[in-house]
């Protein structure tokens, strides 16, 4: 009998963990499994801000896919997905066209710029290894240029971060630690450097525990970050950013503008005809796409409602990894001809937000609040735990965060 073809699109947290779970649960003669990704490595999106600031090297963030898959069970194909044709059970790649019996879409997130003028052209984005390497090198270039131009342009030393959500705050924590190092390296007076965060909501980290938000703001302000809260980015030009608080409009000259003020699901999903909200498909309780029993959608391309508050769960790695487990179990059931699929029930263990490698804050195990070194250690434990799940002890030793202080 012909073995069913399982295609997994994207080797992020959701896609790669689905493959790793399937290789443990399915025998070689039960299915053909192929995972497709545009690079031959998996990157940990949750560490990308560290690569952007230059506090860790990008090679620590990426993991060769072949190091974590069992190649006689899962085939890896390096290619880029262009379109999904669910009615024909086909996937169009840049260099190939494949058919499937079961499909897993785990194509992740992309920046959401809400149509704000000039952002796509002039801002920098935290999206991939290539995009964060560019941010790091751009900042270094600006610092190097400052002392080599006859006329001193202070905007070369001004960095604006758009958004004080978790990405913005974690990035600021890394930059606050990195800037003094850069100043020493490039002979620059630290007082000349401006690090500004612009947040549209009335508070940083809207919706998060206020005491923890206050802790984060105090720690970052102490390290020289300027917050402009209740202030929205309205436009980005080649040399500046235009922001507005109520009726007051201000232009801030800045050579570096990093957009961390919103994400959406991969646009390929809606271009392929799936009904989506900001690129996220409201999936059935078993993670299948409504109307497509052979298609699972997981991670940041999927939307699951938290019934307690009647709002979607935020797109996180924590949820993507849990979805991968349910998705793999349901694929195993379908391949074995069973129809009792599992319901996806998120088990939120907490949220810990880093403020540089040496500080953090968060809530774990329900309502336990952590600050400072304790929270920072917890954050590293969470990071290492994922590596353990993905590739065991050897991966933790190769890529883990083993310097806890
Ligand atoms: P992704 O991790 O985005 O992976 C998608 C994969 O698909 C990538 O490998 C990509 O290269 C590939 N791909 C994309 N398009 C194509 C294509 N056309 N063809 C082929 N391959 C393609 N969440 C937490 O729970 N905790 C945290 O501490 C945390 N920190 C974060 C820090 C930052 C800076 C950011 C940006 C996010 C953070 N998140 C965190 C959120 C988390 O990173 C995402 O929710 C998670 O990455 C989603 O996983 P995913 O598998 O859906 O997609
Ligand atoms: P987000 O949507 O959570 O936050 C974006 C922030 O930008 C919001 O505070 C919003 O008010 C602000 N904003 C929007 N438009 C703006 C404008 N025009 N001008 C100024 N500010 C504006 O996005 P994110 O922080 O990138 O997070 C994405 C996902 O990743 C979330 O689900 C988050 O929980 C997750 N994440 C988690 C962690 C963690 O657990 N430690 C870290 C990073 C990201």
Please give a structural write-up:
There is one protein chain. The chain is of the alpha/beta class and 405 residues long. It has helices spanning 13-25, 48-53, 58-61, 119-122, 129-146, 166-185, 210-222, 267-271, 317-335, 372-399, and strands at residues 5-9, 32-37, 41-43, 62-64, 74-78, 81-85, 90-93, 97-99, 102-105, 109-111, 124-125, 158-162, 194-199, 225-229, 232-236, 240-245, 248-253, 256-259, 263-265, 281-282, 288-289, 292-297, 302-303, 305-306, 311-312, 350-354, 360-364, 368-371. The chain starts with a strand and ends in a 6-residue tail after the last helix. The protein binds flavin-adenine dinucleotide and nicotinamide-adenine-dinucleotide. Flavin-adenine dinucleotide is lined by residues 10-15, 36-39, 42, 45-46, 48-49, 80-81, 106-109, 126, 167, 170, 266, 268, 299-300, 315-318, 320.
Main sheet properties: 6 strands, mixed
| Overall outline | globular
- CATH architecture of the largest domain, please? 3-Layer(bba) Sandwich
Radius of gyration: 22 Å
Count of alpha/pi helices: 10
* CATH class term of the largest domain: Alpha Beta
Count the domains: 2
In terms of DSSP E residues, the strand content is 25-35%
Enumerate the spans where pLDDT stays under 50 for 5 or more consecutive residues.
none
Going across the biggest sheet, name each strand in turn: 5-2-1-9-22-21
Oligomer: single chain
Structural class: alpha/beta
Instruction: Compute the average pLDDT.
Output: 97
Work out the number of β strands. Answer: 28
